[in-house]
Design goal:
Elements (H helix, E strand, L loop, with lengths): L2 H8 L7 E2 L10 E3 L12 H6 L4 E5 L13 E5 L2 H12 L8 E6 L4 H14 L4 E4 L3 E3 L4 E3 L7 H13 L4 E5 L2 H5 L8 E6 L7 H4 L2 H13 L6 E5 L4 H8 L3 E7 L5 E9 L2 E8 L2 E7 L4 H16 L4 H10 L8 E2 L15 E5 L4 H11 L7 E5 L9 H12 L2 E4 L9 H9 L10 E3 L3 H11 L5 E5 L6 E4 L2 E4 L2 H12 L1
Parallel strand pairs: 1-2, 2-3, 3-4, 5-9, 5-10, 6-9, 10-11, 11-12, 12-13, 17-21, 18-19, 18-21, 19-20
Antiparallel strand pairs: 6-7, 7-8, 13-14, 14-15, 16-17, 22-23
Helix pairs in contact: 1-3, 3-5, 4-10, 4-11, 8-9, 10-11, 12-13, 13-14, 15-16
Length: 490
């Protein structure tokens, strides 16, 4: 059987199911052997055949067993990941073709941009599906995300549900892993936005150049009719602009660009800025703070302009979003505004788990801190180790008190991770630096110690409601722990 014949088969009424996980294969299914982050599906071809797979799709250079002995119809392709994406779309009636697809990529800001885009579209009275770090929301159902960008089968399934729910739009966070593994093949994007590049995921990509090249794939795949929304204040954006065939829409904060923002006021509780495009201007009032968040608003505005929304509608939608879970999320209001917390510090949680993200968050809070700025942070295990000392340097430079703790240690020893973090401190013996490996105790210590004029930033986990120790997930929420600490303090 040829691939085109298989494509016709999965598009028919009697289409077999498609699997990329050999454990889910049933009689008559199509098993596509895809090389993932941790495992290579070609190693499981025999298992898929034993479970009843009728068709095997594999890379012509990737099969590691004698697949001719499986008794299955074998279809060899140049790129099985791309083949899986194409088959997934075909098997569900090509739902991506029925949606206006918008994507955002970059090290930091993807989730905020995606939430802002959805807010604009919903404010305009339309339905928008969202796939990202926190949630997969189809309009028919909503599930906690396992990956920032899921596999192509799940994406196609989610898009089919979005169409069924009456959505005309989808916004998706495009991770570097997903782009390098071609999970977004077969989706025609109306526009894609780039936020920034910072040191992260070098455990997977090995070099920053490889990391950027993975991001670049989103833009080199855009059609000439599509729009690349690029951050003029990110140096790497110039490289992307030179590689994409799409129209380029530049954005910048307090600088000349196609889309610009001029900040009028900024407080810890929000920002007011003028949104300008093509000689027009609208006012945005957002509860999100920090220049980097204003930049995120511009990226979202660019995607929405490309999707056909006018500036006034966009400004209203940007202003309507009240909060992004775990992104400088406020656990309590300013002491002066809430009599119940008159003696408590101002507490926020944030997903910042790179040195650049931590720098952005602390820099956003520092100007508004009347007392001391505390930060609680750690680094994840089995992930990019190079950022550990860099995060320490940022914390030491910007915070008045630093509490180093555990994040998701996974299969590494928490103390070993902390030791690598500590190498980044200029004065590790300083009284401003405390080590408490137990994350719950670290959060409790910060909130118990801080005064009413202080700000406490609990960084690294944000929206996550679990902690991964070894290979197990345990219930753990920075937000719930902080709330309990506040109640106990009062």
């Amino acid at each position: 059987m040829t691939f085109d014949e298989l494509l016709n088969l999965v598009s028919s009424d009697k289409a077999p199911d498609i699997c990329v996980d050999s454990r889910l294969v049933e009689d008559g299914d199509v098993f596509v052997a895809v090389k993932g982050t941790l495992y290579d599906g070609h190693d499981f071809i025999g298992q898929a055949a034993a479970r009843g797979a009728k068709y095997i799709v594999a890379n012509d250079s990737g099969a590691k067993i004698e697949i001719s002995d499986t008794g299955c119809d074998i279809i060899l392709v140049e790129d099985s990941a791309q083949a899986a994406a194409v088959l997934a779309q075909a098997s569900r009636g090509n739902p991506s073709a029925k949606l206006t697809n918008l994507a955002v990529t970059g090290t930091n800001g993807k989730t905020t941009v995606a939430y802002l885009v959805r807010s604009v579209i919903q404010t305009a009275g339309e339905k928008c599906g969202l796939i990202g770090t926190i949630v997969y929301d189809t309009g028919l159902d909503s599930a906690q995300a396992d990956l920032t960008t899921p596999d192509s089968l799940l994406i196609a399934d989610a898009q089919e549900k979005m169409v069924g729910a009456g959505a005309k739009y989808m916004v998706i966070e495009a991770s570097s892993h997903a782009l390098s593994q071609n999970r977004l093949t077969g989706i025609k994007f109306k526009a894609a936005a780039f936020t920034n590049i910072a040191g992260d995921h070098l455990d997977y990509h090995k070099t920053k150049e490889d990391y950027l090249n993975a991001k670049m794939k989103l833009f080199t795949a855009l059609s000439p009719e599509a729009v690349a929304v690029l951050n003029k204040q990110a140096p790497e954006a110039q490289l992307i602009a030179g590689q994409t065939g799409a129209k380029v829409l530049w954005y910048a904060v307090d600088a000349q660009a196609d889309i610009s923002a001029h900040i009028e006021s900024m407080e810890v509780n929000g920002t007011v800025f003028g949104l300008e495009y093509s000689g027009q201007s609208s006012l945005v009032k957002t509860p999100l703070s920090g220049r980097y968040n204003v930049s995120n608003h511009l990226a979202a505005a660019g995607l929405c302009l490309a999707a056909g929304f006018d500036l006034e509608t966009i400004a209203a939608g940007l202003s309507a979003l009240k909060m992004v879970p775990g992104r400088l999320e406020k656990i309590n209001r300013l002491p002066a505004e809430d009599k119940g917390y008159v003696t408590a510090p101002y507490i926020l949680i944030d997903y910042a788990h790179t040195d650049d993200a931590l720098k952005n968050a602390l820099s956003a809070l520092k100007p508004f801190c009347k007392g001391s700025l505390y930060v609680v942070f750690g680094c994840g295990g089995d992930r990019d180790r190079t950022k550990r000392p860099r995060m320490a340097r940022v914390a030491e430079q910007l915070a008045d008190f630093v509490i180093v703790t555990s994040d998701n240690p996974r299969t590494e020893e928490p103390e070993a991770i902390i030791d690598e973090i500590i190498t980044g401190f200029e004065s590790p013996a300083s009284e401003k630096i405390t080590v408490e490996a137990d994350r719950r105790k670290a959060v409790e210590l910060a909130i118990k110690t801080a005064g009413k004029d202080d700000i406490v930033l609990i960084a690294g986990k944000g929206h996550e409601d679990y902690q991964i120790i070894g290979k197990q997930k345990f219930d753990f929420s920075d937000k719930l722990i902080a709330q309990k600490c506040l109640r106990n303090r009062e």
